[in-house]
């Protein structure tokens, strides 16, 4: 067998094995692309807030209000999403998690959201785990994603024209031909056009499944190094632990806002047990989870223990932390999301058009044998 025949054989069977899973991953990725925009339209009563010329209500105030509403739940984090958006208190208990929305200026309670019944979170869990236990589903998704990358590479090898004069023909679809030829051309040309961006989306997606992918990206951009060393959080003396968490969390929030005055989003975590520290994060853009700066505070007195502003992080860590924004297209705002949506939609079509090609050839072979 020649190289192209071997590649075609590999491409065919890898596609048949992974096609259905790739289709699910791609379709759910499409749906999730504009989840923030859709929720802002359909849930604006509790997601959005009228901007006011006054400071935000402190995290401890929102945490206490959440405690009044859900006495049996504990708060894990308070997030402020922008001047025109609600603040959210993330809570949990033995029976699950709930998100409580508040007006960030008045502390008025707006809504309780159950992530287990939220449409877009369910879509996200299908995208990440196929709604299976995460330790099973993530490996199925990860394996299919790796195969998808191999399919893109093997597809380009098959597509690559033997002669330069055939290149122009290979870059277009002959729309006037019969539908099987149109399907064949579409499969080849669309796969070629999206290949680079699709590979980037696939690799950044793998970081959610395999830690070694993120470590590899870190080392590639740093030419070595250990991500765990750079992201190691400070250790505190647990013998001097007190329960004055609320004041410390408020001080941590205030200090983070001072250190990052232009930040549009800020989150602050609550220590859950002895030895936990307070972690805060600041983002320059609303609903964009990249270019984050991180700070660590003592849970007793809110004293700053360690700073990690974005511009002081290594290039490798910066790229790793931009991973979600790159994967979803968020990093380029709306144009990036549109690109991610189109690429994901075409990626969802590839297993379908590929199956039609395989099925047509199989039927043709069967007819020849019968004849």
Q: Which structural class best describes the helix and strand composition? A: alpha+beta
- The radius of gyration is 25 Å
Principal-axis shape = elongated
Helix content: 55-70%
Q: Total number of β-strand segments?
A: 8
What is the element string, with H for helices and E for strands? HHHHEEEEHHHHHHHEEEEHHH
Output the strand order for the largest sheet. 4-3-2-1-5-6-7-8
The main sheet comes to: 8 strands, antiparallel
Instruction: Give the low-pLDDT segments.
Output: none
N-C termini distance = 26 Å
Count of helices?
14
For the residues shown, what is the average pLDDT?
93
Strand content: 5-15%
Walk me through the structure.
By secondary structure, the chain is α+β, with helices and mostly antiparallel strands. It is 55% helix and 13% strand. The chain contains 14 helices and 8 strands. It has helices at residues 3-33, 35-42, 44-47, 59-69, 119-129, 134-159, 167-170, 179-206, 211-222, 227-230, 245-259, 315-321, 323-328, 333-370; strands at 74-80, 87-93, 96-102, 109-113, 265-269, 278-283, 293-297, 304-308. The chain has an 8-stranded antiparallel sheet. A hairpin with a 6-residue loop joins strand 3 (96-102) and strand 4 (109-113). Helix 1 (3-33) runs antiparallel to helix 5, helix 1 crosses helix 6 (134-159) and helix 1 (3-33) packs across helix 14 (333-370). 30% of the residues are buried. The mean pLDDT is 93.
